Amino acid sequence: MKRRLLDWIVCPQCGERPRLAVFREEKVPLPGPVRTPACSSYCARHDVPRPQEIEPPPDCASCFREEVLEGALACVCGGTYPILDGIPRLVPNAAAEYAGFFARHGLGDAKTAKPGAPAVVGAADLDARSEKSFRLQWKIYRDGDLTWFKDDSGLRKKEFLYNLGVTAEELPGKTLLDAGCGNGELTRSVAEYGLEIVAMDFSRSVEGARRRLFE
Questions:
Q1: Cβ partners under 8 Å of residue 77, min gap 6
Q2: pLDDT value at residue 33
Q3: CATH architecture, domain defined by 127-215
Q4: Is CATH 2.20.25 what the domain over 1-124 is classified as, yes or no?
Q5: pTM for this one?
Q6: 43 near 122, Cβ under 8 Å?
Q7: What one-character-per-residue DSSP string does 123-137 give?
């Protein structure tokens, strides 16, 4: 996970921006050109809002080389979300799903927000059938399998341009949210257009998607 992600994400319980605690990280190659400042509303490395006002300007290229492999995102409402294998697990049932992580780092169960916190999304609001269905789907579609019977990444990239009504020349430097990235094959292909992409999924398929990005 890049610290850059903190410029966008909020706690699913209350909508506040969580704070990052890093337990393990590594240096990785720079993914591409980085504009300065990269973040617009919050710099996680300096823990300050309005990155454009930091003096001297932040070293965003160095920040992009740092990959957080294990850590935690903690919110003032009491919500705590683990970062495992480089992936933030921003799910309401994180404490139950990753109990071993919470025990290993002495974080407690963190199952409930503090009294009076304005809950935006709670476990009771979720339909467990969706997560169960997609978890099964991505167990069936192993890495390397055809997804939706399409094995031509070039064709899928052209479909992407057609569906969004854009040209490849318009995309470098733009930001894309891939909500429901599945195995990440389309995400990886579309990234070749020079986009900055945030890919998410509520099934464990995100683990395979992350492997694809580094392979």
A1: 11, 13, 14, 16, 113, 114, 117, 118
A2: 82
A3: 3-Layer(aba) Sandwich (3.40)
A4: yes
A5: 0.81
A6: no
A7: GGGS-HHHHHHHHHH
